[in-house]
């Protein structure tokens, strides 16, 4: 028995997308699943590795695709261009990630009643918007995600539980945005947590992050703490 994987091609409108599914075939029958939303460069080995790690924990992991099959950015400028349409049209972002969750729910290995989502950087914004849109998921976890409010979900209740794992010194999400998110989640009636790690910048879970000028630096301690916090959260919401 071992971790199994497969690529899944799917569509959102005219856009062809490709996700990566991972599961442990030692587990018989449908099991809870966790979507993994990628950072601003597109679905990469980083997110696929997270899907496999989730499979090792007994979940079905699904590294989803927001940009399109084979679409990847290779520079800050290219990455900014990839996320720009979704920051400008949050309805598109919300529909795109909801489509990925639908695809995940339809896989034979998955218990469709027990689905959660995690995301990194831009992906953290995506899973927060999934919750903000009222999507039927048990919970979402944002790792060093962006907190920018979408502007199209005012007055909507958030039913998914929310966990945000945040570097306090993240220059892309200053403390006033953290407080604003807490206020937003409270007003939406959410069950929420925000864990802030001191002396920690953006992208703290990515071992390849080492750009102090951009504000993206790996932090092994915060990485380990945040993964433990996620495990505790998923055990609760997907029980």
Describe the fold and architecture.
The protein has 239 residues and is an alpha/beta fold. It has a single domain (3-237), classed as Alpha/Beta hydrolase fold, catalytic domain (Rossmann fold, 3-Layer(aba) Sandwich). It is built from six helices and ten strands; from the N terminus they run βββαβααβαββαβββα. The strands form two sheets. An eight-stranded mixed β-sheet has the order 1-2-4-3-5-6-7-8, with helices on both faces. Strand 5, helix 4 and strand 6 (139-143) form a beta-alpha-beta unit. The longest helix has 18 residues, at 220-237. The radius of gyration is 16 Å and the shape is globular. The model has no long low-confidence stretch (mean pLDDT 97).
Task: Record keyword descriptors for this entry.
239 residues; Rossmann fold; alpha/beta; eight-stranded mixed sheet; single chain
Cα radius of gyration in angstroms? 16 Å
Count of DSSP helices?
A: 6
> What would CATH call the architecture?
3-Layer(aba) Sandwich
Number of domains: 1
Question: How much is the average pLDDT?
Answer: 97
The main sheet orders its strands as 1-2-4-3-5-6-7-8
Total strand segments = 10
Main beta-sheet strand count, sense and barrel state: 8 strands, mixed
Structural class: alpha/beta
Q: How would you spell out the order of helices and strands?
A: EEEHEHHEHEEHEEEH
CATH class: Alpha Beta
Fraction of residues in β-strands: 25-35%
